[in-house]
Each structure stands twice: as C-alpha cells, then as structure tokens.
C-alpha cells in the first residue's frame, strides 16, 4: 500500500487555493480571459512538487474556477 505524502498534498491544496484567488486578476487576450497568476502557480508547483502533483493542482484549480464562474468555460 502506498503512503500519501502529506506535505505534497498540503502544498498542492495551497497552490490550488492561491491559483483560484489569483485568477481574479485576468488579462483579456483575443476574447478569452487569461489568468497569468494561475499559470505561474502551475509552473511553480511543477518545479517544486513534480508533474503529477502539479497536474492534480491545476485540475483542482481550474475545476473550482469553472464551477464558480471565474474561468473561460462559460464565456
């Protein structure tokens, strides 16, 4: 049975929360809303945590953004 790395799990949740809050700062690029803070957080989490944890954090952040109406899915 694999053990869950609590430190990486916690950092992933923190990075996802920062990405969602930071997505309120948007830049309009050719009709879409780009969130540069979220992309910065995704890159930092990939460097610090690794690709799979960064993928999970990016998915969680984008899911929350789309559900709450902050993302470009509803535009």
By secondary-structure content and strand pairing, the structural class works out as mainly alpha
Specify the biggest β-sheet: 2 strands, antiparallel
Let me know the average pLDDT. Answer: 83
Q: How far do the termini sit from each other?
A: 43 Å
**Proportion in helices:** 55-70%
Low-confidence sequence ranges: none
Shape: elongated
Number of helical segments with 4 or more residues: 3
Q: Walk across the major sheet and give the strand order.
A: 1-2
Secondary-structure element pattern, one letter each: HEEHH
Strand content: 5-15%
Radius of gyration: 13 Å
Tell me how many strands there are. 2
Please describe what this structure looks like.
The chain is mainly alpha-helical and 75 residues long. Helices cover 65% and strands 8% of the residues. The chain is built from three helices and two strands, in the order αββαα. Strand 1 (27-29) and strand 2 form a beta hairpin. Helix 1 packs antiparallel against helix 2 and helix 1 (6-22) runs parallel beside helix 3. It is elongated.
Please write out the topology:
Blueprint lengths: L5 H17 L4 E3 L2 E3 L1 H14 L1 H18 L7
Question: Can you give me a brief rundown of this structure?
Answer:
This protein is mainly alpha-helical and 75 residues long. It has helices at residues 6-22, 36-49, 51-68; strands spanning 27-29, 32-34.
Any key phrases for this structure?
mainly alpha, two-stranded antiparallel ribbon
């Amino acid at each position: 049975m694999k053990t869950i790395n609590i430190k990486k799990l916690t950092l992933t949740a923190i990075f996802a929360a920062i990405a969602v809050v930071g997505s309120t700062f948007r830049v309009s690029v050719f009709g879409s809303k780009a969130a540069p803070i979220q992309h910065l957080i995704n890159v930092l989490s990939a460097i610090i945590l690794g690709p799979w944890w960064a993928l999970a954090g990016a998915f969680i952040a984008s899911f929350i953004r789309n559900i709450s109406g902050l993302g470009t899915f509803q535009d």
